[in-house]
Amino acid sequence: VDRPNRGRKQKLDPAQKTMLFLFARLTQKSNRDMEAILSLLGPVFDVDISYKTIERLYSDDEVKMVLHNLFLLLINKADISGDCSGDGTGYSLQTGKHYRSESEKNGDKYRHVFRLVDLRTGMYIGYGYSNKSEKQAFRKALKFVKKHNIPFHKVRLDKNYSNKKNIQELGENVEACVLPKKNLSNFGYEWHKILNKIKENPYKYLKDYFKRELSETYFGADKERFGRKISQRREDRRKTASFATAILHNLFTIRLPPTLTEF
């Protein structure tokens, strides 16, 4: 028995909604500005979209699914080495706030992300988002990589992740390249291995460690190209907005892998 479809018929299919969402993130325009742009393009593409429709894309389950699959497809098509750099950063919820210059990075002003970048391809392979701390985002990024069996055997991290607990969270099969804090105590087995490598060839170790600056370089470039502020009010939409930055980065970086000189 044929049953009539209930509810309003959707104007866009999942692919179109995702393309519209990424276009909105790429242009860094407000929803109302995007509505004005689309009204000019409407006669060409036969589409009539309101600013409310654009805002709803941030919490659309189909858009989230397509974004997730797109992220994994881009990684699967690339020659991921598993030799990575990792770092965290924050996105402001208020105009005029800068994450690195703030002494208190609380959840009322910022949202935290942690990304793992593959040094060979320059692509993000792991991503974590948190409204509480960078450390929570760090753990979510590790969980994402392990869940999807993404190649990951070495990572460079800053001193904030040099404690015994964070090194253990990486797993036995992941080599940690970190520098100790001044007040490092309770070395443990993990730090004995690291200190032995530093002792064998300090210059080689430091040269390898400072490849982690690639993470900071990418963070700065991404914020300039795709925005450093999250305007959404709902938490789930903020998460989707920040995830879009990682996808846009991979889309524009896949053909521009960094040139790294091996020691």
TrEMBL record:
It comes from the Archaea. This is Transposase. The lineage of its organism: Archaea, Methanobacteriati, Methanobacteriota, candidate division MSBL1.
